[in-house]
Amino acid sequence: SGPQDGGASSGGGDGKAAKGGKLTVLNSEAQSDFDPARLYTSGGGNIPSLVFRTLTTRNRAAGAAGTKVVPDLATGLGTPSKNATVWTYTLKKGLKFEDGSAITSADIKYGVERSFAAELSGGAPYLRDWLIGGDTYQGPYKSGKGKKTLDSIETPDDRTIVFKLKKPVGDFPYLATQTQFAPVPRDKDTGTTYEKHPISSGPYEVVKNTNDGERLQLKRNTHWSQKVDDQRKAYPDTIDVRSGLDPAVINQRLSTSSGDDTAAITTDTNLGPAELAQIGQDKALKSRVGIGHFGYTDYLAFNPKVKPFDRPGVRRAISYAIGRSSVINAVGGSSLAEPATTFLPNQKAFGYTPYDHFPAGGNGNPAKAKEELRKAGYPDGLTVTLTHSTAEGEMGPKVAAAVQQSLAKAGITVKLKGLETNAYNEKRWDTDDTPGFFLSRWGADWPAGYPFLAPIFDGRQIVKDGANFNHAQLDDPAVNKEIDEISGLTDLDAAAERWGALDKKIGERALTVPLFHPVYQRLVGKNIQHVVISDWTGVLDISQVAVK
Amino acid sequence: MAVQDVLAPGAGDPPAPGPAAGARGVWRRLRTRPSAVVAGAVLAALLLAALAAPLLTAVSGQDPYTYHDELVNSASGGAPHGAFGGISGTHWLGVEPGTGRDLFARLVYGARVSLLVAAGALLLQVLIGVSVGLAAALGNRWADQVLSRITDVMVALPMLVLAIALTTVVPEDFPRPLLLILVMGALNWGGTSRLVRAQTLTLRRLDFVAAARLGGSGPLRVVRREMLPSLAAPVITHAAILLPSNIVLEASLSFLGIGVKPPTPAWGQMLSTATTWFRADPMYVLLPSGLLFVTVLAFTVLGDAVRTALDPREASRLRVGTRKEKTRD
Amino acid sequence: MTPHQPTDPAAGTAEPLVEVRGLTVDFPMGEETVRAVDDLSFRLTAGQALGIVGESGSGKSTVAAALLGLHRGTGAHLTGTVRVGGIDVATAPVRELRRLRGGIAAMVFQDPLSSLDPYLPIGDQIAEVHRIHTPQVSRRDARQRAITVLDRVGIPDAARRSRSRPHEFSGGMRQRALIAMALACAPRVLVADEPTTALDVTVQAQILDLLHDLRAETGMGLVLVSHDLGVVASSVEDMLVMRGGRAVERGPVGTVLKFPRQPYTRELLAAVPRVEARRAPMAAASALSSASTGDVLLEAAEVRREFGRRKDRTVAVDGVSLTVARGETLGIVGESGSGKTTLGRMLVRLLEPSGGSVRYRGHELTGVHSDLQMVFQDPVSSLNPRRGIGESVADPLRAAGNLTDMEITRRARELLERVGLDPRWYHRYPHEFSGGQRQRVGIARALAPGPKLIVCDEPVSALDVSTQAQVLSLLAELQRDLGLALVLIAHDLAVVRQASDRVAVMRQGTVVEEGPADTVYDAPDNPYTKALLAAVPVLDPAEAALRREARRNGGGLLRASAG
Amino acid sequence: MTERFTGLRFAAKRLVGAVTVLLVLSVVLYALFYLVPGDPAQLACGERCNPAQVAQVRGQLGLDEPAYAQYLHFLQGVFAGRDYSTGTSLQHCAAPCLGLSHQNDQQVTALIVAGLPATTSLAIGALVVWLALGVGTGLLSALRRGGVTERVLTVLTLAGTGTPVFILGLLLLMAVCAYLRWLPFPSYVPLSQDPEQWAWNMLLPWLTLGLFESAKYARLTRSATLEVLAEDHIRTFRAYGVSERALVTRHALRGALPPVIALSALDLGQVMGGAMLTEQLFGLPGLGRLLVDSVRSVDLPVVVGVVLVIGTAVVIANAVADVLYALADRRVVLS
Ligand SMILES: Nc1ncnc2c1ncn2[C@@H]1O[C@H](COP(=O)(O)OP(=O)(O)OP(=O)(O)O)[C@@H](O)[C@H]1O
Ligand SMILES: Nc1ncnc2c1ncn2[C@@H]1O[C@H](COP(=O)(O)OP(=O)(O)OP(=O)(O)O)[C@@H](O)[C@H]1O
Ligand SMILES: [Mg+2]
Ligand SMILES: [Mg+2]
């Protein structure tokens, strides 16, 4: 009995949402990156999306509807050229920065350009990979070598901006949701210190930013207008973001919900197993829990270059042997994770196509696993090493121990090898040194198949001397070709269907053992209304929240 | 090791003709204090339980590693089914939330690791502390300055941070308990060394040290024969305070993710994962923290008792005017 | 033993100030109990002075403490009655007892340093005590009172010094401060437990004079506890000799000292070394024979020793030259801090001289040498409390490393026997021995390497007279049998005279006078030596009174040395 | 006069020693963290940086230089300050410049200055709590030695120490803020902003850390007091009728304080950098957390900077303790 789907859209969501009031945000991580060039996720996550508007944005709606991409600064999702290599956007009229000056296409171009500067590292790799000249461009600052402007972005007039790509990209509207596409006025750019007070194009502007984003006080941006922004609701007058809190304390505060905490939410802290157990049957408390799904898959990764994982039989045996119940219990039980048999997340937007090539049930299928082992030449079982992170969490020791336990039943002895987070990441990303068998996970940059499958299975995305995510180092021309073809499609629904088929096909090779898709459960304060949780982010959308 | 040191007289072995006569006196004085006897018994029981962990779990029929998915409520965060954290005839102290592993087995096995780590680290702390303290007290002014300043910094450096750094530098297949022992031992000897330095400076002025030198003893011989025996008493009492703090430290290191490796159980590591559970499954928190508390209490009581038993002033408590008076004795 | 009541003219009429009747004190020690005081009775009327003498452990201090009820709560078991100022010490409620303590009877303890609070100014301590007994007095007046009494006991510049802490005072000043504390409460009787044992003769003389004057002035009673017969002789009228907790003899001082009736008292008197007596001829003859050959064993030339650096530098020994011949005894006397110990330690090279040289048999010494040994002043700290005494004695033999284990143990047992200890005590620990016995262990250890010379640093100052005599005769005997040379350091002039062929008198790091013992003592040349000799307490009360008078009239030098 | 000079010379000597130790310490840290896994450039750049970008960032951070050169630059910054570019302009980081954070380009000195108020607030308040609680219970149990009061106190203070600080703090938080609701959940308010709110919000952190440390002090005070009570001068005052309470509060306490002071100074230093668990639990933006975060992200300049600052604090605290010690106990000569 899994949790209800993300349609559970509102906590205290009855009553009419009203403007005004102060919203408190209790977070554990500081917003230490607050420069649009540095942010990674679409819209830079929750808080940045209150300050940065982008060409397009995610649809602020609950559940599956929320996986759609919609226009934001632009009037539409962009006009592709015939082969989807040139994308043209037109800006809405009457767009203004917080100082009242107009937002022009040049500001957007500059925002994209400065994201190439080494000083402002971070962000997703797509712009470099896709824009013509993106691989060599070093940004508009003095320190960068070569030309200071990027010619593949054109601004024929103040409201038009054109992007020229190396190859067909059907997903470009999704990419345009990222904060690199937020406007930055060149004369207000202060380089690395810009993040102290980025110039707002959204409904709120920064009043005070203390301790490198540890405390952010935001107030309404009077130059923002609901008329030119149909996505953000901006009910509260002020927003106070306090971070650096212990997750246990955040949840406790939200559940106690007294004083300022009655109007508090968190944008980064999930309920843990113990807290869920405690909430248990408490109806009042339960009604304040928002449940969401984000496109994420935790899986066991194989590196077939390492023996004995070069034998498909061994990989299949492990796929059969895995007991997902134990693994799911290790991360907090069925209300915090759903068993995964597909690599793609179980959402339509990704092209989810159900399959279970190696049915293991909840507790594994040791008999089948043993049979596979025998066929692979290991009639007496075998001993393997599972590499994992020592940090608590989904790639941490608990999950590793659960895997160890369930494989033991099939005669597979698992030795655990825990590495400290940095060492672990370095190792699993290192093409020459990738362990044979380890815990890994992948999340979507946007709800579509491309960013989910390409980095993992595209042979041309195997990265030497850097962070490689194609752990299996699969380089199959057929797969590569299919990826190219789908990614050129501008019909996103048609593309989704083909991504699902591709996933199912790759799944047969048992290069990964999908374990589970995490479920997010988060508390809000008593007086919080209008909780909207989309399947794009899986967590409540701060721009929709109202305070009673 | 230190555990044995403290308990040695309790083993009842006949005292050697040498210094044991003193130890025997201490033991005699200890024996007359009920609190010391109880504390000693508790520690002995713990030690025994740790040593006999496989035996005990054989009796209970559970091992510390097997998962029991059926015993936990997966839909509600993995809390154990049943009252008091799933206590039952088969699982005497209930099971671990999330995994359903037997808590009794994990606690007794955890005692092994925790006591081993704490005692091992203690040994190292005492070794380094005594050597550095002695060297500082007996070396020239330069050596003293250098060692004392290093000790200052050691005492006060954010130990957890260095611990994090060190544990990440060391190859991961290095045995964790040993690593913990090394890290805790290598970083937390400042207090001991200060104590030893101060005591040695006092001792050094005593005439029997001069007499030994006159008798032709070299510096090492003087240290070994004249000083170490006198240092033993304060160091032992100090150790009684250090040991429990080592257990707590193990917990803190686990909390920061650098404790012993799973699935090996250890008290500190159990505690660090248990914190959030104290409302949903209080037993899960109470058991390891209760045990820890009992251990700390027992060590402190015993340490106090040993100290008073070793203190000649306490021994001659009849001395005039040193006691507060009651109306009539 | 028939208790002899001190003959006191006022005894019949006045209620006695102190009345002790059938006092018995038992200390329960594990299974057995130690009877420290056994059926003791005495009384003291106002203005009277009683001296209690006896060897170490005879129960003197226990009696003194009983007078103030200090055994309460310690577990000691008391029977009999003790009444002080009309208060029954055993039954009085705590409040009453507090009034008694200080208010009626005040106590002056032996060790002046440890008896004062090291953290508080002396004046405050006195004021605090004063206010307890006169609560109506304001803080300020109490301080004033403290200054007055400090002034009274002869602390110069009392107003300023009342703000000093104890460590800034010299030993004699501290003892005065303790007496001042007693005075501040205007008690009717002063109980002084060995008030001068830790002090130099000159300072001792001043303190005793002070007590005498105060008594004359205020008419308070005095109970003076001491093992030193000379101290008692010069300060009290009546005395009581204790042994094993019992009173052996009592009576007026003059009578008891002149005509002791009990053998024990006679023994005690005989053991007291007399500064006016020449050395026993037998011992002297044997030593002189080799000394006269002029065979120089050890020679110190212009040795200096400084401590501390720059500002806080002290010169402990300032250019001392002396020689020790084979088999002779050189005595070194001088008051506390004069550099005796420092010099002695340099002679055996435990300390490195900052200047000058020490030559042994013509060769410059560069480190410790097994031929040169030392016996230390303090029998407590000179033996390792955690090692058996046999092991301590065997240690030098083991360090030498040329004997087997068997031989070492045998030799160590022989040595123990040689110094008069039972070899079966080999495995015993120092705390199981008396001071005298421990000093013997120290001597045995010094003998172990087969030395040619032993420096004895105050070998008997911590011991009572009878033990003192035993240890001194042991040293003499060893010297005779083994042909040892001795350097005997002591502040007790009589002890030095008894045991030395030659004497050096030290003051402030230098030797002010040196020569054959009899010459120095009988015809002192240096005024300082003269003053020292004049300060030695004598056993004859009449003579003591004369000397006191002489000191009062012409003691300029002494005053100077007390500052 | 003399005393003051002795004090000055003592301070000067201490300073030289301290600077040397700190230098050695920084070298050790550099060496240690050089070996720590995790590439700061990669971490700063983010997961999906391509190798060229990582290389660019590495150059930007100066990480492409050999280790010794990096260290020398660091030293240069400490003694002479240095300039750095924000991309759009050049900024100066005045000496003592501890460099720039690899992770967010902030000046380390600024980060430390930002973290100091919370950390010092925590440390000093906790110090007061543990002194009050520790010395108080220590004295009480010395007075009531052997009695029920003493046993109860012992168990209580040990309960504080025997519980890891993260559990102790959480329990306090639950009890006070969630169950009893005596206080709202604390969130840090700087002293400069609102002293009253500051105090209210620091109350629980102070209590947590203070409780955790107090047992040590209770035991120390108790044993030191008993030790002083066994000394001869106590006998003197008892023999003059001084009451038991006055003996303890006036005479014994004074003697028991010096070791308490000495230990406090050390612990104060320890708390400056070691209270990260408390800081984390209560969301205090202090040095401890800064340190842990930067250790995790191999942000060497921040790690070295914070440790150096803490080290300096420790040295100062030690020196102050020595002086206090000498003041409390005039017999002790500075050496
Ligand atoms: N507190 C005590 N506990 C046990 N025995 C004690 C205690 N105090 C004294 N005694 C014993 O009582 C006897 C008398 O001791 P006391 O101190 O009165 O002797 P004293 O005559 O003052 O000796 P000294 O000249 O050495 O001071 C000794 O045998 C001593 O060992
Ligand atoms: N280790 C030391 N450090 C500093 N000063 C010292 C040291 N040892 C001795 N002194 C000083 O040197 C002087 C001589 O001391 P010494 O101990 O030699 O005197 P003494 O004649 O043996 O006195 P006493 O009769 O008290 O034993 C004293 O002023 C003393 O304070
Ligand atoms: Mg006595
Ligand atoms: Mg001396």
Describe the secondary structure blueprint for this structure.
The complex is a heterotetramer of chains A (548), B (329), C (563) and D (335).
Chain B: H1 2-7, H2 20-31, H3 34-51, H4 53-60, E1 72-73, E2 79-80, H5 103-138, H6 141-156, H7 159-169, H8 176-187, H9 190-204, H10 207-214, H11 219-255, H12 267-274, H13 282-310, H14 312-315
Antiparallel strand pairs in B: 1-2
Helix pairs in contact in B: 2-13, 3-5, 3-13, 4-5, 5-6, 5-8, 5-9, 5-11, 6-9, 7-8, 9-11, 10-11, 11-12, 11-13, 12-13
Chain C: E1 18-29, E2 32-44, E3 49-54, H1 60-67, E4 77-84, E5 87-88, H2 94-103, E6 105-108, H3 122-133, H4 139-152, H5 158-161, H6 171-184, E7 189-193, H7 201-218, E8 221-225, H8 229-235, E9 238-243, E10 246-252, H9 253-258, H10 263-271, H11 281-292, E11 296-307, E12 314-325, E13 329-334, H12 340-347, E14 355-360, E15 363-364, E16 372-375, H13 389-400, H14 405-418, H15 435-447, E17 453-457, H16 465-482, E18 485-489, H17 493-499, E19 502-507, E20 510-516, H18 517-522, H19 527-535, H20 541-554, H21 556-562
Chain D: H1 2-35, H2 40-45, H3 51-61, H4 67-80, E1 82-85, E2 90-93, H5 108-143, H6 148-162, H7 165-179, H8 195-229, H9 232-238, H10 244-274, H11 276-282, H12 287-296, H13 300-328
Antiparallel strand pairs in D: 1-2
Bound molecules: adenosine-5'-triphosphate (2 copies) and magnesium ion (2 copies).
Care to give the gist of this entry?
The complex is a heterotetramer of chains A (548), B (329), C (563) and D (335). Chain A has 548 residues and is α+β, with helices and mostly antiparallel strands.
What does this structure look like?
- The complex is a heterotetramer of chains A (548), B (329), C (563) and D (335).
- Chain A is α+β, with helices and mostly antiparallel strands.
- Chain A is 23% helix and 19% strand.
- Chain A is built from 14 helices and 20 strands.
- In chain A, the strands form six sheets. In chain A, strands 8-9-10-1-11 form a five-stranded mixed beta sheet, with no helix packed on it. In chain A, strands 12, 13, 14, 17 and 18 form a five-stranded antiparallel beta sheet that branches. Chain A has a four-stranded antiparallel beta sheet with strand order 4-5-7-6, covered by helices on one side.
- The radius of gyration of chain A is 24 Å and the shape is globular.
- The model of chain A is unreliable at 1-14 (pLDDT under 50).
- With 329 residues, chain B is mainly α.
- Chain C is an alpha/beta fold and 563 residues long.
- Chain C contains 21 helices and 20 strands.
- In chain C, the strands form four sheets. In chain C, strands 6-7-8-3-9-10 form a six-stranded mixed beta sheet, sandwiched between helices.
- In chain C, helix 3 crosses helix 4, helix 13 packs across helix 14 (405-418) and helix 13 (389-400) runs parallel beside helix 15 (435-447).
- Chain C is globular.
- With 335 residues, chain D is an all-alpha fold.
- In chain D, 75% of the residues lie in helices and 2% in strands.
- Chain D has a two-stranded antiparallel sheet with strand order 1-2.
- In chain D, helix 5 (108-143) packs antiparallel against helix 6 and helix 7 (165-179) runs parallel beside helix 11.
- The longest helix of chain D is centred in the middle third of the chain and has 36 residues, at 108-143.
- The radius of gyration of chain D is 24 Å and the shape is elongated.
- Residues 1-5 of chain D have low confidence and may be disordered.
- At the A-B interface, helix 5, helix 8, helix 10 and strand 16 of A face strand 1 of B.
- One adenosine-5'-triphosphate (ATP) sits between chains C (27, 29, 34, 36, 54, 56-62, 227) and B (316, 318-319).
- One magnesium ion is lined by residues 340-341, 377 of chain C.
